[in-house]
Give the backbone structure.
Amino acid sequence: MFKEDFVWGAATSAYQIEGAAFEDGKGLSIWDTYCMEKNKIFGSHTGNIACDHYHKYRDDIKLMKTMGIKAYRFSLSWPRILPNGIGEINEKGIEFYNNLIDALIENGIEPYITLFHWDYPRELYKMGGWLNPDSPKWFAEYAQLAVERFSDRVKNFITFNEPQCFIGFGYCTGGLAPGFQLPMHDTVPMAHNVLLAHGMAVKIMRKYAKSEIKIGYAPTYTFPYPASESKEDIDAARTATFEYTEEMFEGDWSWSESWWCDPVFLGKYPEDALHYLKKYLPVGWENDLETIGQPLDFMGQNLYNGWECRCGADGKPEGVEREVGYPQTASEWPITPEALKWGVKFLYERYKLPIYITENGIGCYDVISLDNQVHDPLRIDFLNRYLLKLREAIDEGADVAGYFQWSLMDNFEWCQGYRKRFGLIYVDYETQKRIIKDSGYWYRKIIENNGENL
Ligand code: BG6
């Protein structure tokens, strides 16, 4: 059963919905300029206007209210409030977030702020970004400003969204802004700086918060789940969740859960990963671990899919081949609700903190039907299946505090542009008209019944 005060929410991020990319003194982010490059984004789409949420946030909050959403996870655009990333403050940007927060609270919706969801200030990027040893300090300055201005009303903060993606795809494999393929001598120290930035931010946020705040962190992962309920398969899936293998090192080295979570939640890098990566870490990295491992209040986890894992003949975890025509989303992500159950169970066992699913959802090619409604049975089925598995994890002892559906509304899906739709609300980008999809009304009923009617 879901707890009585279970947090039923929906999530978005600044660059994906706000628009107003060049308005009211906002500085540029690396996504603003990446979208100006040739052949980077599907259809040369940009987030310049996106869902125009910057101007339509009041209407969007009304829709949230109609759907009975209790909590809203959004991110701040760092360059909107600090155009150069550090230094001069853009009061217009602060005003936007103040208005947003006030309107949410007036409507009984709890705000959850993510500090960084990928739109890195271009001015800091020009100074080397995460490669610069001062980058953790820059982030801490920004985090301080966020709590100074917003923590009188906002109680929950998340430092980073999916470090695996913005470092891994941004700088290792090059599929996200700024689109680099840098060597490990650069990217491992960058990842370390991100972790240190997290720890320094946590310290400074606790110091300057205007009220007692809760702080978490939101990584992502593709979770192995056991092929059967046998102890061997369960152990194999657990091992595969946290181990660091040669294959990982040879591929996108940063696609790991334990590399990004053990330092944050346990105050140490995983030994098996250090075996491969230690030589790339910056001198004196050990001295940063205490800061990186600052106590947190909760763990956020973005979780979309996973893979079936069994214990192989050699006793090691091995993947089970997917059947022909296996279910998948428009993003070609496999539909694997079991991953939510086992991911949550394994994370809770290891890190022992209350968990929020900070993102989970499905990209579809939704359409407006002749009756002017958006019928999205696939999304309803997907969410129903995943939430049932989340409930099983809770029933088996995991402490789960809340669930944020990704996404509140259709939005700019990074390199995929506006091609796929992830929202509970349909957005017509030409007219900016919104339509609550069937799934939005379905979610309302789930929230009303605290998930008992799943
Ligand atoms: C997560 C991100 O990786 O997945 C979101 O945190 C993103 O920002 C979502 O929109 C869907 O992924 P994609 O790759 O289809 O945009």
Summary: Residues 155 and 321 are 44 Å apart (CA to CA).
